[in-house]
């Protein structure tokens, strides 16, 4: 049985990856033809995630690299799954709802939990991306569920799912992220997730006034449009964490070498980035792309672990909520520190230091390592829309890994991620030269490569990676402690989250 | 015969519209099952345009509103079709190639012209959007043509098509638009279509230093990313026109009312925009959306005319190249004037004038006309990435209409464009309340609504519309004169285009 389950879910995960690369029309069509196996299925992996992924790529982040938005979605979704499945657990309680307890006979198969988590998903998704409501409705109707069933009868899985989903929606609507877009006393034409903290960059895309500080980059979007970056959701720093109270406790030391008055250190860390760029190879390029993509790196490593260890549906939900929450809560501190230090990215520092002097580095897609003027150098990946220090990706990986270690009781990971020849997004048709399997034996390896890949990619200095590697395990620990208190039922009742300014 | 042709092509045009709204996978699949009717088909409408449209929406402009890039694609494509079909015409010569003349027997059916224009399309598309080469290859292989056939044997349609396409590619590669991305002595990491003229906005997205001048807007992209506008292709002003020599001849008067020192006029034109916003109705909203979409308004009005008048394949090509060239060449002068005056958009002027004072206007999707603080007002459409004056859309429509009038010998248009209830992109599910047919009896009506729709949409002042309405017919006339000289064979041989700075 365990083996069959493993096989079936593997197929779906593979299908999920196919969806990611685009041919989701067919996939949905074939789903609607079959009736869903509620009894043995895992609707997280087989229904909810496949419905969500294409919309994340089309509406949220085309590279799956905009972590603050993606983590919000994955955390609220998995929170809703957890809360919806809690009544079917012997002791667990929800984060944002207390829905009673169902007789154990109702969780002998996956049927009730699957139904509950799908209704919970529907409520959360309709709140997070209301313009895609037709997609969320289809997610239910394709497998015979009725999206218009808004029962909150807690004796039924539909009612439990709806109540759990609505609880999360209410619980997080005003958590500080400005999901409703009406902060700053904005009553008309809401601007969801818009900064309401009045962040202003010191530098402009056209001029570097202060070489220590962040400079928005001018980035190409498609064939010929160029857009200037805006710090994405600076208010994430004010958002209420799940697993601890005060982000202020977690200060990180200032980025000494990013201060251009410390010239030798400033130059040295920039030179390290150029050296890493010159030293790129296929494996490093692929790892850079993998860890930039939060769905593939964070999402698939967790789902794949759930599958390979044969986790039950409830365990899959617990693990997924745990690792999402760990990264989500880690991000709050990271954004606090990013805003505090507002640190320069490598591209600005390298232009400032070297101008049109020639340097050795990666020379652009398909060009390999060459000599080129420093101000024509590009990092292998585009920088995300936020200041450099500390590295968010590294911190997410560290928190995620530590959470997984705590839950699974081991550092062993044994995750393989395969990339076909030429499947790189940066160097399509060229990289990798041969079919390649990226292998991560342990979570420690995963974190190490995740962090280092940000330097290889040219978007971070070493210090930003090191500080996140050293300081972010704690978010995995705290998330695990909070999850444990939810599972054993000792977690206190929780009021709807409030952004810091509202306290 | 004429009637059958009409019917068949109508079906394809309808299919094209279906493609625009997304389900292109199926459509391509069904095409590949049938063998293509080269003899009677019209490969412009049935093959090339359907292959191109989805890529324009995914890679070039998601709203089909970024005119400078779209016009470049449509003009170079139709130029290639014209040059590829010229040898099959009794007298015509190509713009960028002189490929001899084929016996009339070779153009008794559409077969040779269809083959020639598809190879020409393939060469141009592979140059304009090389990253989509697999799509362009599939366009050929789906109907049994071999993309690897790079013959330039001018006794064959394949050779003629390849030679014509390559001629256009060479002819326009350095026309000033920076397609290769290597202007400003940029030898590495090319930035295609990047400004190389050093345009810098006076205002920032955060602060209006000069209320007369253009302010880049901060716009939401998807769920929660915000990006700051960058003036799109300011170098369009330096690009070589097809149909005249010196853009400097076509100066437009300064936008008096956009100068905030002329306060009463400045206030009055802003008040007019607010009044138009308050006066929106379903018809105006739909027209605003129609004319913002350059594929639907410019492209479909021309193709639909070709179909309804039963134009032959060669006539369809002539008309399409003519109207594309007219708008393309008009845009060069418009960009020259936009850059010269760098004029403020309504959103900035209205915020400057009224701050948080309450005004009456459209209140956002589904809100109708309400009272709201001026600095929370939004225009019905997002502004495109360029200064306000003069109106580019109006000038494109005027040049397009005049070109069509000259070619067809009449102002009569009789074009209907139907929109299903709730099909608005701005107010989906709400607007229009009922299925609606937008009807344009004459090209004069078309231009009038096109221009006025920019004020209804809140993105232009009246003066910018009026000046374009008055001054842009000439671009239709000049394009028609140049086309006539190409058709009768009197046009001089032309060297590859050069941007102005290279002269």
UniProtKB/TrEMBL annotation, chains A, B:
One of its GO terms (molecular function) is peroxidase activity. Residues 1-29 form the signal peptide. CDD domains: PAP2_haloperoxidase. It comes from the Bacteria. Residues 322-489 form the Vanadium-dependent haloperoxidase NapH1-like second helical-bundle domain. InterPro entries: Br/Cl_peroxidase_C, DUF6851, NapH1-like_2nd, PAP2/HPO_sf, V-haloperoxidase. Residues 76-216 form the DUF6851 domain. The keyword Cytoplasm does not apply. Keywords: Signal. PANTHER family: PEROXIDASE-RELATED, TRAF-TYPE DOMAIN-CONTAINING PROTEIN. This is PAP2 superfamily protein.
